[in-house]
Amino acid sequence: MASSEQLSPEQLSTAAERASPAQLSFSSSLSSPLSPGQPPPFSPVDPQLYERDYPRLKSWGELRQSVRSTRRLQTNLANKVPHNFTFAKLETEQGTRTRLYFLGVPENLKENSLMYVDVPNEPSSEVSMLPWQPLLDSFHATPYMCQYSREEQMLRERKRVSAFGITSYDVDIEHRRFLFPASNSLYICTDDNMTEQAVVPEEVKSQCGAARIDPKMCPSNNSLVGFVSSGDLWMCNLKDGEERRLTFVHKGLSNPAEDPMTAGVPSFVVQEEFDRYTGYWWSPTFDQNSDGSRTYRVMYEEVDESEVEILHIVSSTNNERGVDHYRYPRAGTANATSTLKMLEITVDSSGKVKDTVVERHLRESLQQLFPHMEYLVRADWLPDGKKVWVQLLSRNQQWLILALLPLEFFSPATSDSATNSHGESATPPVYLLLEEHSHIWVNVHELIYFFPQTRPDEVGFIWANEGTGFRHLYHVTASLSPDQAQMGMEVETGGSGAQEITHKAVQRCGLTEIRQLTGGQWVVIGKPDMLWVDETRQLVYFMATKDTPLEEHLYVVSYMDPGEPVRLTELGYYHQVWMSQDCSAYVSVYSSVDTAPACMVYRVANQTSRLIAKLLEPPILPVDYHPPELFQYRSLSGYDHYGYMYKPHNCAPGRKYPTLLFVYGGPQVQLVTNSFKGIRFLRLHTLASLGYAVVVLDSRGSNHRGLQFEGHLRGRMGTVEIEDQVEGLYWLAENVDYIDLNRVAIHGWSYGGYLSLMGLAQRPDVFKIAIAGAPVTCWTAYDTGYTERYMGTPSANVTGYADGSVLRYASQFPEEENRLLIVHGLIDENVHFYHTSMLINSLVKACKPYQLQLYPNERHGIRQQDTCEHYETMVLSYLQKHL
């Protein structure tokens, strides 16, 4: 249950949520007599009062027109925002040229394409607006009728991609060669001399009958392209067009029970809950052989799902089979198992791939080396290509290890000899660099950077850790010598499930130095591509919430002589940043609650930044757009809580308005930030324009507030969140005069749908209506990775699972009609429709009224435009009639 899906089921662009600062509207301690223990008596709406406030209900057609107007504005705003930037340099006789590539929507078009701007080297007296130039010549990237293959659909779902056109690319920065998927195929192009003439991309031809996903160029030979097709790893040599299947584990059988193996692609849980979408890694280096040939290596993950339950889900109306099959491990059941293997590919001096590809296996499997580790959550190579590193996580996710695997630990699959690939009889050990333990859970992150080894018996790296309760950076030096003293590095004491690692092939490393680089009651953001290291100046750049939990900023600190981190981005905005490889420049897409996204380029020198160019000025918003107001209050829990408030348009003094509480409330998500909400949350603005007050709150359990704040949900999801939501609602009602506590609806999607149900069941005195989208209703039916992280296993937390099940509260739902609306996509492969069907069965047994809206061709997120339009119109109509 990843974060971005929860924010909006009908998101139009992956460019949303690039934000900025806001002013807090209110700030005080909670003193309202309307405490959760003493709610106001629920009473029906006075019809005369309703007619005075709303003289006429809008027709379905009028509501539909409001939705269409909103979506036009939403699309226009989203299409203006560039993203996925890459800096490249070219040395010429006139000096160094810098070109910035990115994804954006060309003028008068509707889909993303590769664009570029030429960036000045030095700031001028007047900062100029750089014109966007198309890199590609007249290229259409979206498949005909948007018909993606099932593999592409699943990857888009896991990554929460809803944009069209080119949505990702791989790049060889040195040679400015781009590889990208488009139109159900792969394409490649090269910007040779940084001319202003658009290039024509060349299709990478294939004999594969299925989609090619996760394409990546070999870092040391951009003519070698890897990809996954039909559950196996393939390679194409661009020099001669030769295509080769590298693994043969997936059979392509119609019966999934007989075809459980894949290579190069992670399992569902690893993608969905740990955000790892690749299952193979090219080595950054190659071996030069005496005959002039070169040997390249690729490590890959082989996944065995033979013990994972197969679920059968009704397929879309576009699928004649009628049923789709998915491997899906429900809480408490068996997960997929993974092992790492390696391939050695030799290319002769003419560029032709030799026939023999050497396959290497681990001498001891990961399960043998680390029997208590369940998940392979991260993996990659060290810079010299002589070792690989892995992060492994225990089943209860309270124990994580970081280990190094030497190349020699991979032995040829056809050899029984203990001799390694270099003819040496001794095999170096597997190095256990560090362990982390927590009695809450270990949050997996992307903050790791290995320095080039200067000594064979020592390795240094940047690492993030939550030992203080907040994620911070450390410079760690580990000795690979068995004689060094050992030091521990733990998230917290008291972690459960940790056991001694005793395998004879594993050497526990001594941590000779742990230098803390950052500290305080704020967090370093752990998302991908948010850590940059300047080895020349010994600086590390990172994103964090140091100044306010509502804004993300770029900071820099020395990793050799750390002091107070220096902020480089402007306060009052929420920033999303991309840096150049040499850390000399960065681009920021930033916004605030009342400022639409802007995009600027900065030069970095002496830990300061200077604006040198503009890519996007904040667009002028329509005069009738009213941004939400931020507010904060001190909760009875002792924490500061934050929220948004959308005031009804043309709000009359003294008049009470129906109120919608838009909720998520689960872990991994932060709804309330000082960022522009006119793209992702524009529907909430529409509600305000139609006379509703809209409230959004981040309660305990939400993201970026520290491990204790987030860990409030540990083992008891569904039983504590509504308390915080109601407390915030009552505080706001005491401080503004327009919220009608007799007419409050609660609405959310995914975890927000779950809490919408819990809100109506647990507090029917507070919430008149609940609209629950794609809700979890019983945690035993959700996946292992997410559920067990926060709840433990069903056998270890029987009470927590029972208390957190909506089914338990079926008899507590109100008996009045038109108070419960459930919405679900029938082909949802994440939160299956089974959740809603179980709830309906329980409601029927309890003889409780409900309404159900099904979308036969939608998955967990609503993607299709016609469905989005119907869904939003339906929500407005339901609220208008029944709130």
From TrEMBL:
Biased composition (Polar residues): 1-14
GO molecular function list: aminopeptidase activity; dipeptidyl-peptidase activity; serine-type peptidase activity
Enzyme Commission number(s) of this protein: 3.4.14.5
Biased composition (Low complexity): 19-35
Enzyme class, spelled out: hydrolase
Catalytic activity: Release of an N-terminal dipeptide, Xaa-Yaa-|-Zaa-, from a polypeptide, preferentially when Yaa is Pro, provided Zaa is neither Pro nor hydroxyproline
Gene3D superfamilies in the cross-refs: alpha/beta hydrolase, Dipeptidylpeptidase IV, N-terminal domain
Location of region: Disordered: 1-48
Any single GO BP term: proteolysis
Domain Dipeptidyl peptidase 8 /9 ,N-terminal: 53-161
InterPro entries given in the database record: AB_hydrolase_fold, Dpp_8/9_N, Peptidase_S9_cat, Peptidase_S9B_N, Serine_Prot_S9B/DPPIV
Residues in Peptidase S9 prolyl oligopeptidase catalytic domain copies: 683-883
Keyword Hydrolase included in the entry's annotation: yes
Domain (Dipeptidylpeptidase IV N-terminal) ranges: 202-596
Annotated Pfam families: Dpp_8_9_N, DPPIV_N, Peptidase_S9
Entry keyword set: Aminopeptidase, Hydrolase, Protease, Serine protease
Membership in a protein family: Belongs to the peptidase S9B family. DPPIV subfamily.
PANTHER family: DIPEPTIDYL PEPTIDASE 9 (PTHR11731:SF193), PROTEASE FAMILY S9B,C DIPEPTIDYL-PEPTIDASE IV-RELATED (PTHR11731)
Name this polypeptide is given: dipeptidyl-peptidase IV
Gene this protein is translated from: DPP9
